[in-house]
Input
Amino acid sequence: MIGGKVVRTCPVVACRALSCRHTRRRILLPMDASPRPAKFNDHPALSRRDAISLGAAAAMAPFAFRNTRASEESTDMHQVPKRPVTPFTVVLGIAQDGGVPQAGSFGDPRWDDRAQRKSVVSLGLVDPASGKRWIIDATPDFPRQLLELHRISGGPARPAVDGVFLTHAHIGHYPGLMYLGKESIGASRVPTYAMPRMRAFLEQNGPWSQLVSLGNIELKPLVAGEAVEPIPGVRVTPILVPHRAEFSETVAYRIELPGGKRVLWLPDIDSWRAWDDTGTRLEDVLATVDVAYLDGCFFADGELPGRDMSKVPHPLMTDTIARLAALPETERAKVRFIHLNHTNPALDPSSDAARVIRDAGMRVAEEGEIVAAQHV
Ligand SMILES: [Zn+2]
Ligand SMILES: [Zn+2]
Output
């Protein structure tokens, strides 16, 4: 176009590549025009209902990382809203333990498109006043996630996190602790909150036990249902969930931010029915939070050809959608799926699966999105 320049802009998400999978179109701007200010309700990947629910949820805007990958690899223009002034959560990964794509999937086209690669499921917790940052689970993608968390926190340069909360001992949720050891950061007494069996697992099994004996991490006890306050005014409460317990119990976390915003982080659970059997109903928990990040490992049955999916129990997205279908739209709009397996078709926003989720009034979480009491 004569007199104009072509830019790609994705105002609301942390996309990372030459081809933005969210926008999927180029936007022409006059040569001297500045990109539009970030508005999460003008994103083409969001349905009108998404936009309404997000808008109503004031201050729960997806947040674009200061995108090093984009700057390394392209001249994409990404809108970077100001950091919230009050404590906030930020999604650092939405993939199942093995990541997206997975090792050995040599023909997966996502290897060549950073926008479609996903980090293993993790949530950051940031206090802008102090620059301190906490992380829920230490995944195989810990180095990249720590960098992103550091940049978002705006805190002073220091290598480690200020603390870790662990959900359970399945293999994608704690191996990032290795980077706190002497082979890497060599951190000193990083508070690492874990339930009793999880603590014993780390204390009694090498090489993790060395992180404890050398003082790289300092294990801190958690009690189900009892909140801890890692940041003044921020309460983090572990909630037991039924999940294959070979090595440890499993918890979700309920995070209460100043100003009353409440976030549920629940990456792994066997089934909602199993939770019912323990006396906890998803619907009741949903009613106590503003945003619910829920296990969405698989979209539907049959997703793993040749494998018995009952051996890897997780709620199917279709089951979650069906279970919550009768709830008011405001309740369904709280649901944001995480822990997606690399086979999950909903990873592609243009897929039929993603459309089904949007039509149900829910959505897949975006890496980089934040929830804050106040967003400026
Ligand atoms: Zn997992
Ligand atoms: Zn698990």
In short: Residues 1-80 have pLDDT under 50 and may be disordered. The chain has ten helices and 16 strands. The radius of gyration is 20 Å. The CA atoms of residues 11 and 39 lie 7 Å apart.
